[in-house]
Amino acid sequence: MSSTTFNPSVQNAGLSYTENLGRAARAFLTALLAITPEAKPVTENAKAKRNAGSVAELYRLARGFDSIQPNLAQELRAIAARDID
Q1: Under a CB-based contact definition with an 8 Å cutoff, are residues 12 and 23 in contact?
Q2: Which of 51, 73, 81, 84 could form a disulfide with 62 if both were Cys (CB 3.0 to 4.6 A apart)?
Q3: What is the H or E stretch that residue 82 is in?
Q4: What is the three-state SS of 8-71?
């Protein structure tokens, strides 16, 4: 047998409905308008290195599916060839 208890937050104890609504609206707007730091731009060298690794991984996956699912292996090779450009 399980029991569930409801423990209202001490911080919100004794607040009226409008005060609770105001706090919720303020928290929502704060979350909505939160500013995130700008990401560092990815250099071309790092992008090319990551792309080459991804293409190699696709070819490696295709090799494993040659005898089992040749259509999937061909599709993986087509995706890898498309990503090289």
Answers
A1: yes
A2: 73
A3: helix 70-84
A4: CCCCCCCCCHHHHHHHHHHHHHHHHCCCCCCCCCCCHHHHHHHHHHHHHHHHHHHHHCCCCCHH
With b for 16 or more beta-carbon neighbours within 10 A and e for fewer, the 46-62 pattern comes to eeeeeeeeebeebeeeb
One-letter amino acid for residue 78 of the chain: A
The burial of 75, by beta-carbon neighbours within 10 Å (0-12 exposed, 13-18 middle, 19 or more buried), is given as middle
Lookup result for tokens 């911080």: 11
Q: For 2, which DSSP code?
A: -
Check: CB of residue 22 under 8 Å from CB of residue 50. no
Per run of 10 residues, the mean pLDDT along the chain (length 85 residues) is: 58 76 88 74 69 84 91 90 70
